[in-house]
Amino acid sequence: xxxxxxxxxxxxxxxxxxxxxxxxxxGFAQENYAQMPCPLTxxxxxxxxxxTYDCGVVTxxxxxxxxxxxxxxxxxxxxxxxxxxxxxxxxxxxxxGPGGSALHEITATxxxxxxxxxxxxxxxxxxxxxxxxxxxxxxxxGPMSAAIGVAAETMDIxxxxxEELEEVIAGEGDMSLVLSICATGYASEGVDLAQFNSISSAxxxxxxxxxxxxxxxxxxxxxxxxxxxxQVAMQExxxxxxxxxxxxxxxxxxxxxxxxxxxVRYHYDTIFDLCEADAFCSETYPGLRDRFIxxxxxxxxxxxVFDPPxxxxxxxxxxxxxxxxxxxxxxxxxxxxxxxxARGGLCRLPARDYWSDGKPRxxxxxxxxxxxxxxxxxxxxxxxxxGRCLSARRCLHCTRPEHxxxxxxxxxxxxxxxxxx
Length: 421
Hints:
With 421 residues, this protein is of the alpha/beta class. The chain contains 14 helices and eleven strands. It folds into three domains: 4-23 and 140-190; 33-138 and 195-247, Rossmann fold (3-Layer(aba) Sandwich), CATH 3.40.50.1820; 260-399, no CATH class.
């Protein structure tokens, strides 16, 4: 059996060959700001690149303590204010993840764009891809997958066989192997991965705003992980901040990956806990948690197969595409959609879906919450539910129009909705 270190060296050599072509070798910055064509365009009516919005790239130190050292690039999109007498302090949007692309969010999420319009009436709004993400200097371990093919096709891999390479990558320790090789590969190119963190990103915000002409204070709007970054900025650069909005706060005291698994469970646990605490729901759906677990166990043994496959609504289609079967993993991915689905995550079960032959099916993907609450409908019922919940926390509440959080149509009162991870 080939030694694991031999396999590691083969993959590392191939990975370095790939990354060496893709990592920019930035020297010392002469001009640290330049305008550029927008990598993504705003699709909304009335938006004209160069007139109502523009894009650019700002060069900042990889290590802010070594300003003359290696440089990285930050790409931004700026929504121009609609007033002729704007406030001098812009608002900077901080996306979640970490790893989310602010440029992608503002060009693809109608609700986020709509929410920024009232702010835009008085000041510019900036969206930038944080270091290591999106259209800024990117740190990605994706080339590791390609390294296997490169190693097999273009390199002398000695006693290591293609089957052994694939077995290691697909095995139990695949992630640790991939990440260790990825980190070593970037380090060999001079990249200091220790600088790709929230503290450095907080100083990036200050450097970016100053470079494009906002030398004074600015405002931050963070969602999910973006709230964590905003809080770090409050500690690192308080003199530059005028106001901060935290939307879906993440505590800096909790390690970023400490709750990764529980985040998936949270959406379901919240619904189960709310149902158990609600007399109407607990009486109508006793033992909801246990029944759900039982369904997962059944699906693990025998997935639910759709023939023909089902095409869900647009929110689910972006992640799942055409659905030909449902197994337990589906619900983990489904739970992760909660923040991204406009106007309320899990509440917005598809109200209309299509089979793969293009014929619409006037029934929900599963029983619709309004049909659940009323005791009517059923799996084949038409779904004309008007409820629009803005959070999973109130999902059950909004199936009952008389609840104080909802108006007479079953719609949650207040809130602006949000997008982001």
